[in-house]
Design brief:
Shape of chain A: flat
Structural class of chain A: mainly alpha
Distance between the termini of chain A: 26 Å
Strand content of chain B: over 45%
Structural class of chain B: mainly beta
Number of domains of chain B: 1
Number of strands of chain B: 16
Order of helices and strands of chain B: HEEEEEEEEEEEEEEEE
Number of strands of chain A: 0
Helix content of chain B: under 10%
Order of helices and strands of chain A: HH
Strand content of chain A: under 5%
CATH class of chain B: Mainly Beta
CATH topology of chain B: Porin
Chains: A mainly alpha, B mainly beta, C alpha+beta
Oligomer: heterotrimer
Chain lengths: 79, 393, 304
């Protein structure tokens, strides 16, 4: 039953982060004209698509855990 | 001097600035803007792993010969995306990889797959709206003995100030295996996955993301090429991923941090902590060092090397007599891993970009924060190099 | 930032005045092609919204005043939306139907029009009476006119700059007769120094404003004017009195977008003595010179 013992704090953590994120006004809202830095490619979460695909593919064939960042993509016979 | 009148004109000036933002294409960037340029990228990857000096038998002390180089991968991939009619974008990725030289290590890989060619293609269509995006994708991946199809959708919705974006996605993966060793056998599995995410701009230099993913898998998870491999027919997993990007004005660099927690019904729990730092330099150069730390617990049914009477990772270890499920796949053991990497890229001009990435990966049983590692497994390592070229259209 | 990159200057004529686009790039050919796109965009906007061109959309709408509805595209509708905010934010002072006063004020012949002429023209100024429905717009009374001149130049500067930025340029600016949108600092990472003209001496500057990014626009009584009996009549005209404003010689505003800078400086001119409080509360940087030559300024070097 160790799995279920783990799950509980997990969902508490989950709830806490969600509340913090969707949360009411963390500081002052960033204005549209202040977003030039945020528009840089390195400030986005997408990154280099092919690099990410290779890296995820390799990790998922060598490690037990995978996923988390998005959905889709083809599988492979390594798993 | 704060009077009602001054407050009012502050509001008016803000209204003006906000109204100006609403005009089309005045801003240098929109939160959700359809790309107005196409991109074509090509990338080559070479991967080589090794498990040197392995096979020190923890029980007898005898050592067995292990191959120093086990598996190599050469992969080529190409991706292209083009904007269509201002509000759509269509992208496709093609990958071809060949795997060679898998070694006869039962806990590691398998005997039969000496070379294999995989071809995969996926297509994604995205529609951009003023307050979000909607995309649909499909993928197809094929090897001599394996066929995988996937279908996915993802939608995002941003708040009016574009500071918070919610993402919801779902996918279905359908995999079929036709083992070359047994023409009559047929393995298949289906994976339903869903993801929910919140991305939030905290300051003009900070953006954070929080994703929860759930995946429900049914079917054959057992490895048809392994002896003593019988896994549950259900594997559900939950992932929590948080990411944070911070830009440093004084260096003009960006730190990207991410943490993922993974748990599944095989009993594997894993922590992944990743950090990279993107530093633009002069003449269009950018260097990005990266560090990744990974640690997982073993699956409930993992059979360690020599758990019964034999102790040679190149030979199968019979599972305990009363075990219903058993596997000696090294990926299901408890271990930790460290990746160190460096990526260097250079913009040749406004349109061309070249990049080079080198990574070293080391995996050790004793690095698992969960303990209970398999001492019969030799240290595992890999290195990879990527060369990429990208052009804006 | 890039030692092999150069700043390329391209000068061109548009909107009746001298304009300039400056692009930091590694190749002249590349800079030329990008500058070409920017110039094309400015001329596209001029063709579409200039009331001096009989074939422009604005001229078509004006010609249909009192009669037909004219269907507009999304860009034009969003500009009307912006004009509406301008009207509201300025308490009705910035009214894009105020262009009819230019028929009364003849800057070429330097004649002060009579009161009857002015009140007749003022009666045609009424943004709130403009009918907008779906994608169509209609000026309800014959003789009414739209004039996008109050922000069209700044809009063009922003559009052209955004276009250049999307082509990957990070150093340079677009300057349409003094309305400037900066793409990013000079190649050595220092700011562009924008000289502000002395409103009474064409060849002198009263200040130099450093800009890393953002925009700057100036409205002044010296751009088009005439003098009669020592009284200066400029082209910025109060929509209710029908007479040119007199309080400020010039108002320069530094804002994230050229259109915001230009709108704020024009509103400050129109508000006359109250303009200072407006500028102070707007949160934007400004440099204003009043009718006595006194200078007021705040925070023009923040550079966003």
């Amino acid at each position: 039953m160790k799995k279920y013992e783990m799950q509980k704090p997990l969902y508490v953590l989950l709830l806490m982060i969600m509340l913090a994120l969707s949360g009411c006004a963390v500081g002052t809202a960033v204005q549209p004209w202040e977003k030039e830095t945020l528009a840089r490619p390195e400030m986005t979460f997408e990154g280099d698509k092919l690099d990410t695909a290779y890296t995820e593919h390799i990790y998922s064939s060598k490690e037990g855990a995978s996923g988390g960042a998005g959905v889709g993509g083809g599988g492979c016979g390594c798993n | 001097m704060v009077s009602v009148a001054t407050t009012k004109s502050t509001v008016l000036a803000t209204a003006l600035a906000t109204a100006a933002i609403a005009l089309p294409s005045l801003q240098f960037a929109f939160a959700e803007a359809a790309p107005d340029q196409g991109v074509v990228s090509f990338k080559y990857l070479h991967y080589q792993d090794s498990q040197i000096g392995n096979g020190v038998n923890v029980i007898t002390g005898a050592s067995s010969a292990g191959s120093s180089s086990r598996m190599g991968v050469n992969a080529y991939s190409m991706t292209a995306s083009v904007p269509v009619a201002g509000e759509w974008s269509i992208g496709t990725t093609f990958t071809s990889d060949s795997v060679s030289g898998a070694s006869p290590m039962y806990h590691s890989s398998n005997l039969t797959k000496m070379t294999d060619l995989r071809r995969a293609i996926d297509v994604e269509l995205t529609r951009y709206f003023s307050s979000g995006t909607l995309s649909f994708g499909t993928g197809y991946s094929k090897e001599s003995d394996y066929l995988s199809r996937s279908y996915s959708f993802q939608g995002s919705l941003s708040t009016e100030d574009k500071n918070t974006t919610f993402t919801l996605g779902g996918s279905l993966n359908s995999d079929n295996i036709f083992p070359v060793t047994n023409p009559n056998a047929y393995y298949s599995k289906k994976l339903y996955s869903g993801i929910f995410g919140i991305t939030r701009i905290l300051t003009k230099n900070d953006i954070v993301q929080f994703n929860v993913g759930y995946s429900n898998g049914n079917g054959d998870f057992s490895d048809p090429y392994k002896f003593y491999d019988n896994r549950p027919t259900r594997r559900n997993n939950t992932t929590i991923l948080t990411r944070w990007n911070h830009h440093f004005d004084w260096t003009d660099g960006t730190a990207k941090l991410s943490y993922r927690y993974y748990t599944d019904t095989f009993g594997i729990r894993a922590h992944t902590l990743e950090g990279e730092y993107v530093q633009p330099l002069s003449n269009g150069w950018t260097v990005t060092p990266l560090l990744r730390l990974y640690s997982q617990s073993e699956a409930d049914f993992y059979v360690a090397v020599g758990a019964v009477e034999k102790a040679d990772p190149t030979q199968p270890t019979p599972p305990p007599a009363d075990a219903v499920y058993y596997s000696e796949d090294q990926r299901l053991s408890a271990f930790g891993a460290i990746t160190l990497g460096l990526k260097v890229s250079k913009s040749l001009n406004q349109d061309w970009l070249v990049d080079l990435k080198y990574e070293e990966y080391e995996q050790r049983g004793k690095w698992s924060v969960y303990g209970n590692s398999d001492k019969g497994l030799a240290p595992f390592g890999a290195r990879s190099i990527q060369v990429g070229l990208s052009r804006k259209l | 930032m890039n030692s092999r990159m150069d700043s390329f200057h391209f000068r061109f004529e548009a909107l009746g005045s001298g304009c300039e686009v400056v692009i930091g790039s590694g190749s002249k050919k590349n800079a030329q092609s990008i500058a070409g796109c920017a110039i094309e965009e400015v001329s596209r906007i001029e063709c579409k919204y200039s009331r001096y061109r009989t074939d422009s959309l604005v001229s078509r709408i004006n010609a249909a005043a009192g009669h037909d509805w004219v269907e507009c595209d999304e860009e034009t509708l969003s500009l009307f939306q912006y004009a509406d905010t301008l009207y509201e934010s300025s308490g009705g002072l910035f009214d894009i139907t105020a262009g009819v006063l230019r028929h009364a004020w003849d800057f070429g012949n330097a004649v002060v029009p009579g009161q009857d002429v002015l009140s007749r023209q003022c009666s045609l100024i009424n943004w709130q009476s403009v009918e907008r429905q779906g994608n169509s717009v209609r000026l309800p009374v014959a003789g009414m006119e739209f004039d996008f001149g109050g922000f069209g130049k700044e809009y063009a500067a922003d559009r052209a700059a955004a276009l250049v930025y999307r082509k990957g340029v990070r150093n340079g600016y677009v300057n349409l007769a003094g309305d400037i949108r900066v793409l990013g600092p000079k190649l050595d990472e220092t700011p562009w120094l924008i000289g502000i003209q002395d409103p009474r001496h064409k060849s002198r500057t009263i200040a130099s404003i450093p800009l890393f990014t953002g925009a700057l626009a100036t409205s002044g009584d010296y751009e088009r004017y005439f003098e009669v009996d020592g009284h200066r009549y400029c082209h910025i005209i109060h929509p209710r009195s029908g007479y040119p404003v007199t309080y400020w010689r010039s108002v320069t505003v530094v804002a994230p977008l050229a259109i915001t800078a230009g709108s704020c400086s024009t509103i400050a001119m129109l508000k006359e003595a109250d303009g200072l409080a407006f500028l102070e509360d707007s949160g934007m940087g400004y440099l204003a010179v009043d009718h006595l030559g006194e200078m007021y300024c705040r925070n023009t070097s923040s550079g966003f």
